[in-house]
Amino acid sequence: MARSNPGTNTVNPDKPRMSWRMPRVLMYHNFGDPPAAGDPEHLFIPVERFKEQLAWLDANGWRALSLGEFLAVLDGARPPRKSYLVTIDDGHESVLSTGAPILAEAGIPSVLFVPPGVLGGPITWNPVYAGERLSSKAEIATLANTGMEIGVHSWDHTRMFGMDDAELELNIVRAKGDVAEMMGYEPRSFAYPFGTHDGAARRKMADAGYAVSFAVARENGRFAVDRIFVKGEDSLGMFRFKLSLAYRFASRVGGRTPWLRHKVRALLGLLKGRGGAEQATQRTG
Q1: Domain identity same for 96 and 68
Q2: What is the CA radius of gyration of the chain?
Q3: Are residues 192 and 284 in the same domain?
Q4: CA spacing 20 to 30 A to 3: which of 37, 58, 120, 271?
């Protein structure tokens, strides 16, 4: 029988939006070199770049939070002035082989979101990454007591928008029970595949006893907390910018306003180009 995981409760899914000064939630996927077929979504973080990001956070006074500490902030605790939560989506093999050991060595807690219905198989939701495999349930279970807590990422990485009752039951309730059986504790957190959610999904999260669920830019209270998508192409300068309040504001507003979303993407493209030019200058200067 799965043991209860503290912090799981039923709360109002329509609670007001998160404070601008909430801890930053970083979203990663894969670690190491990209596949030979290419990495158009920039999901693979080179090892040295990942280590550089963690070292910069530590050197600049950012404090890594566990999920329990993050939940305490949601419940009203005063957050550290600069704090962050590491989250990882999907459960790719590189998480166990590369990402988890780096985080453990640095003493940084994290949350890994997995879709239990497809663990151990190939990626099915993006043909570009069809050659990549997810870790098996047995492999994911070895992460118990390592500082990496396991959450739910739907049953099979399905978009959580416009689902009927049966689909919500499968992707939120049954998936939660499957992860609980796998890990020996009840998962407290959920991450929406593709960051997609609606009111029905958020209400089901609350009814199912999750303590929090995560989106990307489309923030909507504690059952759609916004995250920062850290891409493999991000320079250290871009990574630093994504931690800023300016980026949080642009990301949140852009997530709800299509015309502004295009403006934000244009700004990020400009900054990325500037960062590339600076790196070229450093190499040739």
Answers
A1: yes
A2: 18
A3: no
A4: 120
Angle at CA 260, nearest 5°, toward 259 and 261?
90
Give yes or no: residues 107 and 191 share one domain.
yes
Q: How many Cβ atoms are within 10 Å of 217's Cβ, its own excluded?
A: 20
CA 117 to chain centre: 19
33-65 pLDDT tens trace = 998 889 999 999 999 999 999 999 999 999 999
DSSP state at residue 129: G
pTM of the model: 0.86
| Dist CA 242 CA 101 (whole Å) | 25
pLDDT score, position 259: 45
Are residues 223 and 254 part of one domain? no
Task: Determine the residue type at 131.
Answer: G
Residues of the domain holding 44: 24-235
Considering the domain architecture, whether residues 44 and 115 belong to the same structural domain is answered as yes
The type of residue at 38 is: G
10 Å CB burial of residue 76 (0-12, 13-18, 19+) is exposed
Evaluate whether residue 250 is within a structural domain: yes
In the DSSP assignment, the letter for residue 184 is S
Whether 230 and 259 map to the same domain: the answer is: no
* Cβ-proximal residues to 269 (8 Å cutoff; 6+ apart), any chain: none
- 5 assigned to some structural domain: no
